[in-house]
């Protein structure tokens, strides 16, 4: 038998063995029973993926029970020419929560919130979070403060003081992009130094963990993107990863839901958690981008919807992504 044949046989055996191990790990993860329940208050779309439609599935794959309330229910996300649907009012939110309260089923280990387009609705969310944290102080609140991106708002600017006065003091974990970080700290975020100074301001307001998901333009290149994670009084990390082709709605919602999972799994190890989230996100976005590029003759917007279901294995078992570089930043504060 030639050396080349032996080499090919070994590689084939090694690959099959790795796949078997991987599949075994996926099955084990799917069979795990977790005593975890999330209340998720976000937007919802009938077609495609955004808000709860993007967040609930990854959480459920990891064995988290999810009670979800849709702040809005739309036919599709705003990237399409037409959007139809309804908005939940603060009174309707209050009524839904009252039902949970009266039936004594308002028991949650985590709260996750995202898009909210109404000031009074956001205030009611704060009331609910306060009540749940009073009931169980160990309940973790992960807030994605959705306000805008790339220098512009796509929610009412009047939400800002509500986030500052009511939401941020309650949040255990905050996941702003650079624009939202700047708005919440009244600073301009262009460089890494700008980002880290603003993150410290949020820590001083009481937020334990801050993950800046995107948009620090001065720290990025045409080939690479960066995000940052910081724990109050602890370590700060820089994550560098490849810039993939395309922009897709719902990625931030998937990111936040997976962050809930991995912060819980790693007992708050932010470096390990964010790296695992980015490993899954890289595969999800790459698969979505590849599919979209192949559908040039189809409805371009519809073809750019996240390939979430098709990426379920990568959501459950984040691939080892050597292209995601994690660096600890010296804390000079």
Q: How is this fold's topology laid out?
A:
Blueprint lengths: L2 H29 L5 E9 L6 H10 L3 E10 L10 E3 L2 H13 L7 E4 L5 H17 L4 E4 L4 E2 L2 E2 L5 H9 L5 E2 L3 H8 L6 H13 L4 E4 L11 E8 L4 E7 L8 H15 L4 H25 L5 H4 L8 H5 L8 E5 L4
Parallel strand pairs: 1-2, 1-4, 4-5, 5-8, 8-9
Antiparallel strand pairs: 2-3, 6-7, 9-10, 10-11, 11-12
Verbal overview:
- There is one protein chain.
- This protein is of the alpha/beta class and 333 residues long.
- The protein has a single domain, classed as Ribokinase (UDP-N-acetylmuramoyl-L-alanine:D-glutamate ligase).
- It is built from 11 helices and 12 strands.
- Strand 10 and strand 11 form a beta hairpin.
Give a quick rundown of the structure:
The protein has 333 residues and is of the alpha/beta class. The chain is built from eleven helices and twelve strands.
């Amino acid at each position: 038998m030639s050396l080349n044949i032996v080499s090919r046989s070994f590689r084939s055996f090694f690959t099959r063995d790795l796949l078997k191990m991987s599949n075994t790990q996926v099955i084990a993860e799917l069979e795990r029973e977790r005593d975890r329940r999330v209340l998720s208050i976000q937007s919802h779309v009938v077609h495609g993926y955004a808000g709860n439609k993007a967040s609930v599935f990854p959480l459920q794959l990891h064995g988290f029970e999810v009670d979800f309330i849709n702040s809005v229910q739309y036919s599709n996300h705003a990237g399409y020419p037409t959007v139809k649907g309804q908005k939940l009012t603060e009174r309707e939110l209050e009524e839904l929560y009252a039902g949970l309260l009266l039936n004594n089923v308002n028991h949650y280990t985590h709260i996750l919130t995202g898009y909210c387009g109404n000031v009074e609705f956001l205030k009611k969310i704060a009331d609910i979070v306060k009540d749940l944290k009073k009931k169980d102080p160990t309940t973790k609140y992960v807030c994605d403060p959705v306000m805008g991106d790339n220098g512009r708002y796509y929610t009412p600017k009047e939400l800002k003081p509500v986030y500052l006065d009511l939401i941020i003091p309650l949040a255990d974990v905050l996941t702003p992009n650079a624009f939202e970080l700047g708005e919440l700290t009244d600073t301009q975020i262009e460089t890494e130094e700008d980002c880290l100074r603003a993150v410290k301001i949020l820590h001083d307001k009481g937020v334990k963990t801050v993950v800046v998901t995107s948009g620090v333009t001065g720290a990025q290149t045409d080939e690479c993107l960066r995000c940052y994670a910081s724990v109050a009084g602890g370590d700060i990390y820089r994550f560098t990863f490849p810039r993939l082709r395309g922009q897709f709605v719902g990625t931030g919602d998937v990111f936040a839901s997976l962050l809930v999972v991995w912060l819980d799994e790693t007992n708050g190890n932010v470096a390990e958690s964010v790296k695992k989230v980015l490993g899954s996100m890289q595969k999800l976005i790459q698969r979505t981008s590849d599919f979209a590029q192949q559908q040039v003759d189809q409805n371009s917007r519809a073809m750019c919807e996240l390939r979430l279901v098709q990426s379920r294995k990568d959501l459950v078992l984040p691939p080892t992504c050597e292209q995601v570089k994690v660096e600890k930043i010296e804390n000079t504060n």
